[in-house]
Structures are given as C-alpha cells and as structure tokens.
Amino acid sequence: QVQLQESGPGLVKPSQTLSLTCTVSGGSTTMYYYTYWTWIRQPPGKGLEWIGSIHYSGSTYYIPSLKSRASISRDTSKNLFTLELSSVTPEDTAVYYCAGGGPSSLRETDRRKYNYWGQGTQVTVSS
Q: With contact defined as beta carbons under 8 Å apart, do 97 and 110 qualify?
C-alpha cells in the first residue's frame, strides 16, 4: 500500500523560504517511474490550488503564478520529493498536500485524478 507523508515547519515567517518534504512508502519500482508527484494547497476558506509536479525523470511543471518562487525536486534514492517556496507572504498560508498520479493528474485539483494523496500539513506564514 502506497502512503504519502508530508513534513515540514508549521510556521514560517514572511519573506522566508518554505520547505516541505513528501516521503513515499510502499509501491513498486514501476510505480515510481510512471507517477507524477505533485504539490497542492488549500488556503483557508478557498479551494484547492495545484502548485506543481515532478516526474521521476526530473521534468517539472508549475502553475505560472508561482513558477518564479516554487521549486520541486526529488531524491529517488530516498523516495521523497520536496517543495521550496521562496519569499512567502501570509497569502501562502494553507494546508499543503502531496499527491501522486498519472499524466491525467497534471494541473488537476480533483482528488479522483490522483492515485495517492497525503494527509496534508498546515503551514502558517506569520511574524
């Protein structure tokens, strides 16, 4: 059974860089090759927002509005992928989720498009 677990600081100060890690456990080697690993967030009172994805090959995809501040990377030896979001503001306060799915999940926020979904971690940006 594949499980995703997000980890990172719950509180980040404005202008700092937010760093989150998603650790993937279970699953086959083939699963890792064909999955797009994704970060999604949900600000309070708002809907889900797709942030970006990374493929096992290293190809990355970002929402244009965050492309200048977001960076997604992966460590295939440790089965994890990370999100870094620079110059955060209180508007980046959200529950951040990691997820995994096939090509049809790219840029999607519909959970039904994903095969795997983490529990989410709250990140608050405040001084």
A: no
Q: Three-state DSSP class for 30?
A: helix
Helix and strand element counts for the chain (H, E): 1, 11
Q: Are 96 and 121 in contact (CB under 8 A)?
A: yes
Please name which of 65, 123, 31, 43 lies closest in space to residue 52, comparing C-alpha atoms: 65
Q: What is the dihedral of CA 9, 11, 15, 21, to 10 degrees?
A: 20
Question: With contact defined as beta carbons under 8 Å apart, do 36 and 100 qualify?
Answer: yes
Selection from 4, 28, 27 nearest residue 83 by Cα: 4
User: Could you state, in chain order, the average pLDDT of each consecutive group of 10 residues for the chain (127 residues)?
Assistant: 94 98 86 89 98 93 97 92 97 97 94 96 97
- 49 residue type, one letter: E
Residue 63: how many CB atoms within 10 A of its CB? 14
Q: Is 46 left (phi over 0), alpha (psi -120 to 50) or beta?
A: beta
DSSP assignment, residue 40?
E
